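Bug #77: duplicate submission created two jobs. Keeping one. Sequence:
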Amino acid sequence: MEKQKFSLRVFTDLEQSSQVQEWFDRSCVVCLAKTDRIKCKLALIEAFTNVVRHAHQGLPRYTPIDLEVTLSLHQLELRIWDFAPPFDFDARLQKALEANDSLSGGGRGLIIIYQGMDFVTSTRTDDGRNCLLMVKHYAQVEDEGERG
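Kept job's structure:
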């Protein structure tokens, strides 16, 4: 399988989450087993929700959020770009993991993303955005029954 890329731009609005989910389903229908597809979709929706509710808090509704899925033979890469100020992703993730047993209420989305994916990182891009990269390794689906 050659690398395939699928891109989507949405606005900072939780009502766009159904569009994000439909786009993801169309992009990944042929390559992922059902359990991997569910984990990746959940991570994507958690990341999108975090951008809308936290990263873009106070920004205009029309502030864009760019999403990209890159598929290769044994790996899916999800990227989501936001316009939030720079932040220390690793420190925030570590704090969420340490507080996982408490009832603090914050950070559970980061934990869901971290536990569902094989690799997660955030970088600052040259154009002043944050890019969250989430990677899932998989075996290519051979059996139609696994696609579910």
